[in-house]
Amino acid sequence: MSEKEVKTIYPCVPLRGVSIFPNTVVHFDIGRDKSIKALEAAMADERILFVSSQMDENILIPTFDDIYKVGTLIRVNQMLKINGDAVRVLVTGLARAEIEEGFEGGDFMSCTLKQIDDDLGEDGLSVEDKAGLRVLTDLFIEHAALSPQLTDEIVDKTLAEDDPIALVDKMASELAISVQRKQEILEAIPFSERLKLLISVITEENEIAEVEKELAQKVKENVDNNQKEYFLKERMRVIQEELGEDENAQAEADAWLEKLDELKLDELVDTKVRKEIKRFSRMAPSSAESSVIRTYVETILELPWNSASKVNTNLNKASKVLERDHYGLKKVKERVLEYLAVIHLCKTIKGPILCLVGPPGTGKTSIAKSIAESTGRKFIRMSLGGVRDEAEIRGHRRTYIGAIPGRIINGIKEVGVNNPVFLFDEIDKIGADYKGDPSSALLEVLDPEQNNTFTDHFLEVPFDLSKVLFITTANTLDTIPRPLLDRMEVIEVSGYTEQEKIQIAEKYLLPKQIKEHGLKKDAVKLSEPALSDIINYYTRESGVRNLEREIGSICRKAAFLTVTSNKKTFTVSPRNLDKFLGKKKYHYDTIKGVSEVGVVTGMAWTSVGGDTLSVEASFVQGSGKLSLTGNLGEVMQESARAGITYIRSIAEEIGVDPEFSKNMDLHIHVPEGAVPKDGPSAGVTMFTAVVSALTGVPVKKEVAMTGEITLHGKVLPVGGIKEKVLAAHRAGIKTILLPKENMKDTEEIPASVLKQLKFVPLEYAKEALGHALDDKKHPKKKTTKKSGGKK
Asked: Of 364, 681, 701, 740, which is the active-site residue?
């Protein structure tokens, strides 16, 4: 063997389950991103690349350690894009080659090669090799006769090759053997060794094929015997029926027909079911089709076509149930009772589907259960989190083995009534993949104009869902498809205030946890300050799920002490709270110190409630550069730039040097830089901080603000007012500056909080200066009129 060192760097493609030999023309598919980029690099050059098989085809992202060192240098003849991003290529094997050095750092794998010269030398074939080649040819013809995949055309084309090396490579390429065996043949050097190895491989494959042929013949004989046994058993069954010793399929079919007559279904459904029952009665009970029809007919007959729960029409009872199970949520309860009142008057459920949207732990699922109880309906819950298969909604067609109805029909069949409360939980977590889009299947289910003829793929007949009271829950509306959201009426289930959480803990959570932990009724006493500390320093949520978990931890500790120390009662206060729950997990900002220049308290909304944040601004001598730090999002950065532009437009009016943007560098920073922040509601806050830094006038410490700012200084409304105000109140804020259009949102804030706060409506951003800056002589005092600023 002679080796020629190849210093050119070639693109490299790892092959999965495929081996390519020199002197052959083959096609294969490329789907991996790196491999496609390697192919594109080769096509852009001389169409030459190196391929080698993976040792383990299950590895998705192989390295050079995962492929064989010896492979094949190939030329790409043709490439064609197929389904998705995959590419099908037609290539010609040029020569064997061995990897000299691999490179993995770029967009694709590449390597330098040692090309392996594979010639017969000056003497050509030896007598032994000529004899071996004849034996190999006979073995290949014999193998083709035993292998259906090797057609006469393939054999003739392969044996027409005159070059011995190319002939051996083509024969090896056509064999249906493992990649490992083909790799042994590819690496066999010199030619005489490869010839002997291939003769050995084909001989072994021929012997295996002969054994398989014998086994197939024996299996056929066994099948014939089984058929004979089947006919004998059928005769025996007929004899037993004649003697009255066994029920036949006709008796079962007759029982179904009697039940079908009692149901009095629509003509379409009745005809369909009778046809299936007739087919069943003519089939052998042991056939696979017979069991499918049995499942189908039994499902149809078990469905509650005409069975319904007696619906409670007493709204007072419904109201009592809602009040008993849930504290607060006044607007949600009112909306639910209004909805039930309309149903009572109209005697139907024509109208939008309810969608309860709110943070985790706020009681959305339990509200749905209470609605079922208050109306006297059965309750079905289906979690849509992670559901990606349309068949979960619509069922499988009966052509599939093991086909079953969808979960909607299955749930209704199990509860036995056609008017339950059906809860689709976590509808915002629904997914989609190659099996279909479940959200599209829900469009018909949740449309009152269509769901009276809902057709499950398994049933193949319409079933009336218009009597079902559908309710959905979600944490956010952002991920719900718009056509699906259009079919639902959204009811916001906002987070609880601290006082509401205390009431919930005292009335519901603590008694429940005491009972679940086997303690006596008054064994654990939690003071209101202790509950407040648990809410503020051990949980950070809009709901009460973690609050219940922490109360459970206290009860668990009390249970342990009850058993070990015989102590019967436990009083938990802020002083000994850490003995039960450990160190505080969270903290909230509180107003401390004195008023500072360029430091303003803003208000933010998070998924677990409101919070306060400081916005800092500072100027240094420079050339007008702007720095924004604190992990700010794009929208928040845009708000800062809009505020600065507005300041420049009214600089003289508010007593600021108009040239500040040319000779000063501005830096705006929002602390807690590890926490991402975004949204437009900090526009007024950043505007005030910059003006304070420019004028040197400090900002009042007890003032907080929120609002989006425009280029002309107009203050636009923002969301999450209730949560933001409660967070500001908790931090010790006394005065809150809000967009004028958000003042109506203060109605949702508890009266006890409203009494302690002063609200200032803002129409233009410069109005905030007179209330926020701690300088009675500041020129802003004369600009509080509602003007649009400089145009």
From this structure: 681
